[in-house]
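Model it.
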Amino acid sequence: MQVLLENLPQYLKENKKRLNSKDALHYCPPCGGGWGVVKTAVQVPEVQVLFVIPIGCGRHGAIAAMKDGTDSRIHYLLMEEVDLVSGDHLEKTEAAVRELVEETEAKGLILFTTCIDDLLGSDFEGLIEKMEEELQIPISRGKMNPILSETPRAPDIMVHNTAYNFLRERGQEESAVNLVGCLSPVTSDSELFDFLESGGIREVRHMGNCSNFDEFLSMADSRVNLLIRAPGKRACRDMERAIGLPWIDLPASFLPEKIDEGYKNLSLLGDFSYDTGALKREAEEAIREIRPLTAGRTAVLGKTVNADSFDLALFLHRLGFQLKYVLAAAVKDHEQEAMEILRTKRPDLPVIPHLDPALALRQENSEEVDFGFGLDTAVYFRPRKLVLLPFETSLFGYRGILALLESIRSAEPFSGSVKDLVYNANLVI
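Modeled.
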């Protein structure tokens, strides 16, 4: 199934803002994964992770952890039907938590449960309160519950709350800011760091850069959270409510006007002397220079890119690409404007929900295009050139635009193994 962009608002209204219909079959593609809750949670240093889980639910995360080299911090308490029906799994969880804390000397513990405990209404909150008092370590509950995907409490949203729940009190405010919502830190060459330094911000913090648990906890003392990606929005709101840590919406974008707007919002923090004008002009000139290479070229935008789908789609349209399809998981609130602009320019653009079962047929009858953006485009189409934009790289600002343009300019003809691409990306399916 695909939806023409001109009909997308009505489709979203009828499906309660979902691109993948709740009442339809979903396809689990070999390229459709992401970082998953496991890889995100283990970014909190010196914390152990315990999954209370049926064996089938834990297999994919365990394999990904082994490939990532983080399996020594991830533990599994495997549940059988009789444990769940009788409620014995709560007692077994208590024993497992005690054993794990004693054996690992964990600074903190993340306790993950699955859809089953959501349906059963298991009292893990009471268990956590009891174990925190007994063991004197902080415990944060996580949920790996795909039944809530594409809802306000989806796993990829709530895992940010799971991580930041460890920040429970603020000390003296420090001249630092936190980057929230982006799975990987913003690339170090971004002008964002120069901009912040010009206003007296001495440190930019991201949980993936913290070397120990105490350093992670110091994020509570930062001046403000900068929301770079939408999945961290709920965590920002909760931190503001719980510990009084304010936040500013600073979404990563490839659209110059949105980047401008972001820096204006950031200027409300204080007096920043860094002038982004020269870099903006450089990016605009680079866009003009690349158009002879991109104008009229056919392209497909996949879901497995570290970017917002409709923001990037509008940027590619402005470069002159002839977009054939956009694969997407959702239309985020801050993408609405970009989607509406693109809708006026390309009402005939097909949007494909990324879990659409019909995608399975495309692997056998793939269409050739000049450029594919995202690993999944190499599965469903035959791109002559492939630009990956992986989750491990978070581009931001005008230098983010320049980096993307260089990736397009230097893209080599693609003739490799799609299977190798999927395995090397280590996506959690």
